[in-house]
Amino acid sequence: MNYEAVIGLEIHVQVKTRTKMFTAAPYEYGAAPNTLTDAVVLGLPGTLPVLNHAAIEKCAKLGLMLGCEIAEECKWDRKNYFYPDSPKNYQLTQNEQPLCIGGKVEIELPGPSRNVEGEHRWVILNRIHLEEDPGKLTHEAFETVIDFNRAGVPLAEIVTEPDMSSSTEAVAFLNCLRNIIIYAGISDCDMEKGQMRCDANVSIRPVGSDKLGTRTEMKNLNSMSNVKASIEYEIQRQTEILEDGGNITQETRRWDVDKGISFSLRSKEEAHDYRYFPDPDLMPVQMDRARVAELEAELPERPLDKQRRYQKDLELPFTITSVLCQDRELSEFFEAALETHNAPKAIANYITNDLLRELSAVSEHGESAHSVSQSKLTPAHIGTLAKIIDEGVISKQIGKEVFTEMFATGDMPDVIVEKKGLEQSNDTGEIEALCREAIAGNAKAVGQYKEGNEKALNALKGPVMKATKGKANPAMLDELLKKLIDEG
Amino acid sequence: MSETPHIDIDYVANLARLDLSEEEKAKLGSQLDDILGYFDKLNTVDVEGVEPMAHAHKVFNVWREGDEPGETYAPEVLTKMAPEHRDNQVVVPKVVE
Amino acid sequence: MSDLHFKTITELAAMLAAGETTSVAITQAVIDRTAAVDDKVKAFLSSDADDALAQAKASDERRAAGKAIGPLDGIPIGIKDTLAVKDQPLRCASKMLENYVSPFDATCIVKLREAGAVIWGRLNMDEFAMGSSTENSAYHTTCNPWDLETIPGGSSGGSAAAMAAGEAIATLGTDTGGSIRQPAALCGVVGMKPTYGLISRYGLVAFASSLDQVGPFARTVEDAALLMQAMLGKDPLDSTSIEQPEAPDYAAALKEKKGPWKLGVPAEFFGEGIDPEVKANIEKAIDWYKSQGCEIVNISLPHSELAVPVYYIVATAEASSNLARFDGVRYTHRSEESKDAMTLFTKSRGEGFGDEVKRRIILGTYVLSSGYYDAYYLRAQKVRRLILSDFEKAFEQVDAILTPTSPTPAFKRGERADDPLAMYLSDIYTISVNLAGLPAISIPSGFTESGLPIGLQVIGKAFGEADMFAVANAFEKAHDYAQQTPKL
Ligand SMILES: [Mg+2]
Ligand SMILES: [Zn+2]
User: Fold this and answer.
1) Please, what is the average pLDDT of chain C?
2) Residue A460 belongs to what H/E stretch?
3) Strand, coil or helix: A408
4) How many other CB atoms are found less than 10 A from the CB of residue C161?
5) Hey, is C215 helix, strand or coil?
6) At CA C89, angle to CA C85 and CA C93, rounded to 5?
7) How close is the Cα of A10 to the center of ligand 1, in Å?
8) What range does the domain containing C102 cover?
């Protein structure tokens, strides 16, 4: 029998606020242990939670980005379970009435090759709710130590419907979701820093069946490759069990990164009875409709919408748009450069080739990953460079040199051109003389050209360019050489 | 609830993470069954359509504005009260899932 | 002046203002009195005389500099062991918090300090405020100063007994189901539970969050009003604390509001289970109001009978979750037998909590657990609304409601120790007030033949403290019960 997989994901994303979900203690990744706590974070006797309005607004914004309905009214419940990383031994979360309902995420599946666009589809969401992160446990040889810095960080939990059927789809979903979240400024989604974590629910069923099989849940997958590998492992494991005539046990499993296998944590029978009930310490929230409309109006364009627009309106190729639209900052840099000089293709090329190459070279020299905003270049630099090339002030060739110089110094391209005397030479008299010299000095190339080999002209251009230090206008040079040979 | 109510004390004690001696379980079990029997009174009233009351005086949208970081505790506040600690972290017996 | 410790706040404030005494003298009188009688009464769990005298000295210096704050400046006030006082033990009369010292002040304590009060000692209670006799303290039992063989009521038994014995000028308690009013009645002092939300719960160790309120014990209604005035107000740290549109002025209300009032008497509070002496006493009090021209209205609170089950479901459910943070990890008792995360929790909690706390945790866990939530917790929350509606209907007809505070006077120690249900029924007249979130005050209304105090409960409308104080004050001023003190 052939089986198909049914996959649903639960993604926890740390909402990028300065302070925690229920108290004003700050959070930052990597701080010394237990330096970001207060009485509320530690769950000391007598403490009470107070909602962080900024986190509610950011989560609502995320919901709007993902096409969710923003609830008229939402509230917080207590999820009761004991664990040493949980200061109150209950988590404040939204069980009954979440902030965001429904929603869907457009995903792009991998194309047949790297530079060919893949198929698009939508993954349906169930909800997004807002809750609190627990502290961090570190397991040592004989003991476990606890750092409560992370406790209370706002988490948006995004729950999909069981709407994916392969590890490839799951990874594509996570990538697209991540892009959208970063675009919206909700979170940096750095999986290594725990800013984005994924639980996967996997079941299989005979192809064509509309009944869901028994599912297992994989907890805390903290990289894209773990998500992919664990889902593939689980589909394979379940298929083998069913093929052997066995039954799947509903259970929670943990992925062992080193061994590349998953193992059972607890079965459904002993699963938690969370005893959810409405938190009596927090009041419910009513989302003001005018404010929701305002948030909606402030939303950035979604990355795939932007990519479509670049391809259609600016006639940029898929490969370039996929690089530009990966990163909101980069696409905004691009659009700002267009305001200086409206040459989308040339500017897109400078950004995706030259700028990113120089940035990654800097990163490789030991400094942390360099982003556009950290470089000395502004959109006006790139725009001006493209502009002076189009105006014939310098050649494309010289443009490369100017780019390197302006990346290093931050000087504007026109300033560099002037300082270094790099203007393209349009002095017909001087170039004509040099051309005649070149024709006289290379009869072989002239002959080849006359026989119809256009490329032979390059051998003649070389010495002219050399003599002008590359400043000869290449178009003019081309024309002149042809004219002189034809005349000659 | 109209059946004779009975608490599965082992199940509930485990949920509550409460170690009880056999003696405590027996005593608590029968006391709680009496109390639950008394709770049966609740079934004498019709609650159809009644909104559950979670707050005495419900108001909406009570929150903190501004997202401005407040004061934090020095790690010593925690380590001073913790039963066991090392390098500013709280130590517990090894947690295995 | 040997009887300073039995004076009222109002009297002492006048003496202080006139320079007839000092805060140090008053505080010393209270310390001396405590040293003399607390061996018998055992109201205190701990006290710090040096700390209290230092506060008193600061008050006297303030006054000498012409900067006296108000009527509470320099007045020693005893604090129930469930309210956080910075750098003082906060044990909730439990072994669980044997070594715990609070790093912060409860908001009500901050406000009392701002009013110049001297924070004095930690008063005994039922463990985690669970009980009606103060026999559930893990440290010792407090005795009723009127008859040392009897209980002082509970859970704020230490706060009530300290007042009756002259070991403080006023004290604070907390009231979840009658824990201020019932011991006030049994000890012959004034005890008041405010409208839910009037005083911040920040720093009050939560028993049942939707019911808990801080309130004063005092010698007179006027003193209680002074304390309320100092402590009330919206607190940004407690989302359930409420901003009143108009700031109340209780002192003015006591002068201006003279009645006569329409007073409701609910038939349901005079039926089965009431002690005949208590019944006769309260009827006499009602007659007095009638004699003063008040209209006595027979009202019905038909769902009162259900208040006990509703209360014990709601309160224990919330408690089971609130007390989950006492787990052996961060600041509580930790069992020597902790071998792993599971035994760390189960053994520490098994050893740290007393019988009644365990009983309520089990009950509360059960009513929230899978399969029982709807039948118990959800149903109780619905019946709770019916109880509130009864009061709302009654208050369409009357200004305040008169009832006994407790069905019986103080009972003998150990009498109800093994019958939790009988103990739960001691709160039958007080708990519906908590469920409805209303204010109520218990004032001395006479004595039994054997000399035990009886209390009259005046229940007010939500935020109707001003009227409630006025009604209670009228009775108090016409009788001398409040001036009587026990022979110790
Ligand atoms: Mg989840
Ligand atoms: Zn979650």
Assistant:
1) 96
2) helix A457-467
3) helix
4) 36
5) strand
6) 110
7) 6
8) 4-264+395-483
Q: How many domains does chain C have?
A: 1
CA pair distance B28, B24, nearest whole angstrom = 6
Indicate the length of chain C as a whole number: 488
Q: What is the pLDDT of residue C1?
A: 42
- Arithmetic mean of pLDDT, B52-70: 96
Q: DSSP secondary structure string, C238-269? A: -TT----SS---HHHHHHH-----EEEEEGGG
Range of the domain at B38: 1-45
CATH of the domain at C22: 3.90.1300.10
Residues 6+ apart with CB under 8 A from A332: none
Does C303 fall in a domain?
no
Other C-beta atoms closer than 10 Å to the C-beta of B66 total 11
Name which of A23-32, A328-337, A442-451, B75-84 the model is least confident about: A442-451
B54 part of a folded domain = no
Q: Name the H helices within A220-277.
A: 224-243
* C120 Cα: distance to centroid of ligand 2 (angstroms): 44
| Angstroms from C346 CA to nearest CA on chain A | 10
Give the model confidence (pLDDT) of B69-80 as tens digits: 999 999 999 999
Whole-number pLDDT of residue A458? 86
Q: Can you give the three-state secondary structure of chain B, one letter per residue?
A: CCCCCCCCHHHHHHHCCCCCCHHHHHHHHHHHHHHHHHHHHHHHCCCCCCCCCCCCCCCCCCEECCCCCCCCECHHHHHHHCCCEECCEEEEECCCC
Instruction: Evaluate whether C86 touches C51 at the Cβ level (below 8 Å).
Output: no
In a domain? residue C351: no
C389 DSSP β-pair partners: none
What pLDDT, on a 0 to 100 scale, did the predictor assign at position C462? 96
What CA–CA distance (Å, rounded) separates C145 from C148?
6
Residue at B29: amino acid letter: G
Three-state DSSP state, A14: strand
* Tokens (6 digits) for A426: 């349009």
**Helix, strand, coil shares, percent, chain C, to 5:** 45, 15, 40
| DSSP structure string for C133-153 | SSTT-SS----BTTBTTB---
In a domain, B56, yes or no: no
- Torsions phi, psi for C266 (to 5 deg): -85, 125
State the nearest Cα–Cα gap between C241 and chain B, in angstroms.
9
Residue where the block lists tokens 């709601």: C314
| Cβ-based burial of C478 (10 A; exposed 0-12, middle 13-18, buried ≥19) | exposed
Whether A18 and B91 lie within 8 Å, measured CB to CB: no
Q: C404 with C457: CB under 8 angstroms?
A: yes
Alpha carbon separation from A138 to A148, A194, A197, C345 (Å, rounded): 11, 14, 17, 18
Residues A370 and A378: their CA atoms lie apart, in Å, by: 14
Q: Where are the alpha helices (DSSP H) in C257-354?
A: 276-291, 307-322, 341-352
Closest by Cβ to B56, choosing from C100, C196, C305? C196
User: Is residue C272 domain-resident?
Assistant: no
Substitution target in C365, C389, C391 with the highest count of B β-carbons within 10 Å is: C365
Residue B80 domain flag = no
What is the count of residue pairs from A and C with beta carbons less than 8 Å apart? 98
Residue B13 sits in a domain whose CATH number is 1.10.20
Domain membership flag for residue C367: no
**Secondary structure string (H, E, C) spanning A74-135:** ECCEEEECCCCCCCCCEEEECCCCCCEECCEEEEECCCCCCCCCCCEEEEEEEEEEEEECCC
Q: What is the DSSP string of C155-207?
A: SSHHHHHHHHHTS-SEEEEEESSSTTHHHHHHHTSEEEEPPTTSS--TTBPPS
B89 within a domain of the structure (yes/no): no
Confirm if C187 and C146 have CB atoms less than 8 A apart: yes
Measured between alpha carbons, how far is C380 from A104 in angstroms, rounded to an integer? Answer: 38
Confidence (pTM): 0.92
Residue A1 has pLDDT above 90, yes or no: no
Q: What is the DSSP string of C385-445?
A: HHHHHHHHHHTTT-SEEEEESSSSSPPBTTTTTT-HHHHHGGGTTTHHHHHHT--EEEEEE
